[in-house]
Specification:
By secondary structure, the protein is of the alpha/beta class. The chain is built from 18 helices and 16 strands. Helix 12 crosses helix 18 and helix 14 packs across helix 15. It is globular.
Length: 489
């Protein structure tokens, strides 16, 4: 049996009441933030972090043995790398609205397979498209037939969210005279949840984009493809209406990966084609990730080493989620990982800093214990700082060495900045890449951009892990193994 991951299953009790009343379109998105904050590309670059709002799903973002993956995540990650930005993932909780998160500044773009609609354009701006999809009806095979036209759906309730673009498509068909019954699902239920319920026979039909159906049918059986109800819908990222520079830079990036030729046929970059194949098309990779038969007992809720990391962290009174985020960054949980500099194992321990022989450092428990021992020493060195700052300094030291961090602190003092705050130290680390600064530093040139990105990416991953665990504890996502089972209570 394939030993991989992650099933996003959603069980929902759907209302028997059909939607028959047209709701005021001004209430369509249920937003509360009326004016967007100002945070454009310049402010994002100053902060060094791009915040991506997305869904916890195969198309958006999910964990694979603790490693962050997903179609939207990898696409946005490429943009972030090209612009020297760390990427932070923001997953809305059950009571959070993604448009409010965007306009309040909690995120900088929504990347969640969103169709461009007039209702959404009243609240946010959209980038140029990066995909075209068709909307199609999906029915349970328990119905015993394959609907070929909209007319075949008469008397069969179609369950969707009111805040989805599918609702608009079905309402247009109703207005054209088709006999369509619409059941309302909760607004926080995503398309994969509804497809799972169709496959399980809990509901009779739903609507999905064809790319999501292609991905889902690789790991779900019991679904039948029905008629198409909308064609060539453009998928794009949403940004704040006042983030013109960010939108322009995103458009430039997307144009390199997706454009139309003179006949209106989409042309995709090799990179985008690889992502499409990986997550949506012929590849069986997603089927492996989303294997319902997977034995969850082999893994923990975030990584393959949760129980071991938790035990060692508890012995040393350390944050196990932070240690997991570090291991993900250092080795992607590969115990045999080796760096160009000779660091080895889960925590990428340098043999010269350990009393163990190098062969022993490939043992996960020994390697984690050695990594914790080194980190504890760094944390003690910065014990007078608040917890978050202490961790950032310790992470920078773990990555770059104490000498380069000391140089950065001395440089901050020379420029009348606080050497105990992370922001001026991160600025100094970047300056230590310039000759006029590093030529007078005790430890010389420092690849500061890597250290700053290292700290940002670990702290951002830590925040994402914490958010996922919080959702699990609240019942919004029930984690079973490294795959999630999302249920609605």
């Amino acid at each position: 049996m394939t030993t991989l991951l992650f099933v996003l299953l959603f069980l929902v009790s759907c209302s028997d009441k059909s939607e028959r009343v047209h709701v005021n379109e001004s209430e369509f998105l249920n937003t509360t933030v009326t004016e967007p904050v100002y945070r454009d590309l310049r402010e994002i670059k100053e902060h060094g972090v791009l915040r991506m709002i997305t869904s916890y799903s195969s198309g958006g973002y999910f964990l694979y043995r603790g490693i962050q993956v997903g179609f939207e995540y990898e696409l946005v990650k490429e943009f972030a790398l090209e612009n020297d930005l760390a990427l932070e993932v923001v997953i809305p909780s059950e009571d959070e609205n993604p448009y409010d998160l965007l306009n309040s500044g909690a995120g900088d773009l929504i990347a969640a397979n969103y169709t461009i609609t007039e209702e959404r354009k009243a609240i946010v701006d959209f980038t140029r498209p990066y995909n075209l999809v068709n909307q199609l009806i999906v029915v349970s095979d328990q119905l015993g037939f394959e609907p070929e036209s909209i007319s075949d759906m008469a008397g069969i309730p179609i369950t969707i969210r009111r805040n989805s673009s599918y609702y608009q498509s079905l309402m247009k068909l109703k207005e054209e005279g088709f006999d369509i019954t619409i059941n309302m699902a909760p607004d926080d239920m995503d398309t994969e949840a509804l497809l799972f319920n169709v496959a399980s026979g809990n509901i009779q039909a739903t609507v999905a984009d064809d790319n999501m159906f292609l991905a889902s049918e690789k790991y779900l059986s019991g679904m039948v493809k029905g008629p198409t109800i909308s064609e060539r819908d453009e998928i794009a990222w949403a940004v704040r209406k006042n983030a013109d520079d960010l939108e322009a830079r995103l458009n430039q990036f997307l144009y390199q990966n997706f454009k139309y030729n003179e006949d209106g046929v989409p042309k995709r970059s090799e990179f985008l084609n690889v992502l499409r194949k990986k997550y949506y098309e012929q590849s069986s990779q997603i089927a492996d990730y989303y294997n319902p038969e997977y034995e969850s007992k082999q893994y923990g809720s975030i990584s393959p080493y949760d129980s071991l990391i938790q035990r060692i962290a508890s012995e040393h009174n350390m944050d196990w989620v932070m240690l997991t985020a570090i291991a993900a960054q250092e080795s992607k949980f590969d115990p045999y990982s080796e760096s160009w500099a000779g660091a080895v194992g889960l925590m990428q321990v340098l043999p010269k800093f350990s009393d163990f022989p190098i062969d022993s450092l490939y043992d996960p428990e020994i390697n984690i214990r050695e990594g914790v021992r080194i980190l504890k020493g760094h944390l003690r060195h910065y014990a007078y700082m608040d917890s978050l700052t202490q961790w950032k300094f310790a992470l920078a030291t773990y990555n770059a060495g104490s000498g380069h961090v000391a140089d950065a602190r001395r440089l901050a003092i020379d420029q009348d900045k606080n050497p105990n705050n992370w922001e001026p130290i991160s600025e100094s680390l970047l300056k230590l890449m310039q000759r006029r600064f590093y030529q007078n530093a005790r430890y010389g040139f420092c690849r500061g951009i890597e250290t700053v990105r290292y700290v940002n990416e670990i702290t951002n991953r830590y925040n994402t892990y914490q958010a996922i665990l919080a959702l699990a504890n609240s019942g919004d996502i029930r984690m079973s193994g490294v795959f999630g089972v999302k249920t609605l209570n």
